[in-house]
TrEMBL record:
Keyword set, alphabetical order: 4Fe-4S, Iron, Iron-sulfur, Metal-binding, Repeat
Organism: Xanthobacter agilis
Residue ranges constituting the 4Fe-4S ferredoxin-type domain according to the UniProt record: 85-115
Pfam family, one: CCG
PANTHER family: ANAEROBIC GLYCEROL-3-PHOSPHATE DEHYDROGENASE SUBUNIT C, GLYCOLATE OXIDASE IRON-SULFUR SUBUNIT
Name used for this protein in its record: Fe-S oxidoreductase
PROSITE patterns in alphabetical order: 4FE4S_FER_1 (PS00198), 4FE4S_FER_2 (PS51379)
Length: 453
């Protein structure tokens, strides 16, 4: 059976006991499903993220274990790729938000996010790619090639109720929440410091699609923080041989989550080509959006692009990871001042939690004199990329947010600082409470004792 992702990492599964009933069809993809050993941690309602859909429904049909059972049944009963058109899979995967919590919190490390990507890709092969999927998945291309048209269309839709209703009727985009609007001007980096002004050496800042086109102030703040810390910051740019040298690099995350694997592979190839020299030089590459940077570090392996992927992964850091590492291993000391702020609320993106990045976030926040915060112990915010914009999922999206996140924000005083590094998380918080959350880069910039710019 043709698969869209590279499942070779599961080739040896089934030789030992790390499996539970491998389906008759599906090859290594089926083995990835069969790693589930039925621990039922996916039915946990305590601390942790897994499983957001089970938490809001209480229905075991929406747990990771049940999704595994649906895949096994479909792959055993179906014939090759046709099994992926099985309606049982549609029902099982409907509320999966690709949070990656199962890979972290499940003892068997079931990677339902990748399994869902393969399922969607197979389904698209059989039924075609829906228009809404092309729109949501294609955000990197829309912003890179048709930015002005996209901004005008979104602004019209957000301000004219009839347009929002039409978009819901024709495309299935909910009329009950605004679509994030690109800024009037995309990110434009400040001039790079001269080498002699940067004693700690050079780093590359990977400005993702969302920071580049929607929240450029985050990238600007990150550049300021890194330069104040003593680094010469270069921006990640496409290779000279890139077919679209003026379109910013993209991790391909939106394509992966919508099952458009070939598009994601194309973006990944652009990234590898752009960073080939940096891989050889072992230059640190720093990202800002958790789902984007961590996709490069994790999902890139599934695209079958060779050993460079592993080398690149060793050089990829979220901003707070890089700062914490430099502090611990290379003596970085960032001079920060006290901020006149009450105790803050910190919400971690699902992928920050899944990859253990929250520890670095806590370490870096501890550098700010007198700064204190509470972590909101919550599951997924519910926005989950395009999930919360889909008309049929709007209610579920808000139910996930109402489990703990939105009540915690509403219970906080009006001057309580809100910290959330995820683009989707910030928009869910604003939509559900009217409050704006900020990226850690902005907080650190404000705390700089002697900013460069």
């Amino acid at each position: 059976m043709k698969t869209f992702l590279d499942w070779s990492a599961y080739d040896i599964y089934g030789i030992g006991d790390a499996h539970s009933g491998i389906p008759a069809t599906g090859g290594n993809d089926a083995k990835a499903v069969a790693v589930c050993m039925h621990s039922r941690d996916c039915r946990n309602l305590g601390k942790g993220v897994m499983c957001p859909s089970y938490r809001i429904t209480g229905d075991t049909a929406h747990s990771t274990e049940a999704r595994v059972a649906a895949f096994k049944a479909a792959l055993n009963d179906g014939s090759d790729a046709a099994a992926f058109a099985d309606p049982r899979l549609d029902a099982a995967m409907d509320l999966c938000v690709s949070c990656k919590a199962c890979k972290k919190e499940c003892p068997s490390a079931v990677d339902m996010t990748l399994i869902k990507t393969e399922y969607l890709a197979q389904r698209h092969e059989i039924k075609g790619v829906p228009t809404r999927t092309r729109l949501f998945g294609g955000v990197p291309e829309w912003t890179g090639r048709h930015r002005r048209l996209l901004r005008a269309a979104i602004r019209l839709r957000n301000r004219w109720r009839m347009a929002a209703r039409m978009a819901e009727k024709w495309l299935g985009i909910t009329a009950r929440r605004p679509i994030p609007e690109p800024t009037a001007k995309p990110f434009s980096p400040a001039p790079t410091l001269a080498p002699e002004a940067a004693p700690r050496g050079e780093v590359i800042l990977f400005v993702d699609t969302f920071c580049h086109h929607f929240d450029p102030e985050i990238a600007e703040a990150a550049q300021t923080v890194l330069e104040t810390a003593g680094y010469r910051v270069r921006m990640a740019r496409p290779a000279a041989t890139d077919a679209e040298p003026h379109r910013p690099l993209c991790c391909g995350r939106t394509y992966l989550t919508t099952g458009m694997v070939e598009k994601a592979r194309g973006e990944a190839k652009r990234v590898l080509a752009a960073f080939r020299d940096e891989i050889a030089a072992k230059t640190p590459i720093i990202g800002l959006e958790p789902s984007c940077l961590l996709s490069l570090r994790d999902e890139l392996y599934s695209l079958g692009l060779g050993p460079e992927v592993g080398d690149l992964g060793k050089q990829l850091y979220l901003l707070e990871e890089f700062l914490a590492r430099e502090h611990q291993n290379k003596g970085l000391r960032l001079e920060l001042k006290t901020l006149d702020l009450p105790k803050a609320l910190l919400h971690g993106h699902c992928h920050q939690k899944a990859f253990g990045v929250m520890k670095a976030t806590r370490k870096v926040l501890a550098w700010i004199p007198g700064f204190s915060y509470d972590i909101v112990e919550t599951s997924c915010c519910g926005m989950a990329g395009s999930f919360g914009l889909e008309a049929e999922h709007y209610k579920a999206s808000m139910q996930m947010a109402e489990l703990k996140l939105l009540p915690s924000v509403r219970a906080a005083t009006a001057d309580t600082p809100l910290i959330a590094n995820g683009f989707s998380c910030r928009h869910q918080i604003e939509h559900g409470t009217g409050r704006k959350a900020r990226h850690i880069a902005l907080l650190l910039r404000d705390a700089l004792a002697a900013p460069v710019r």
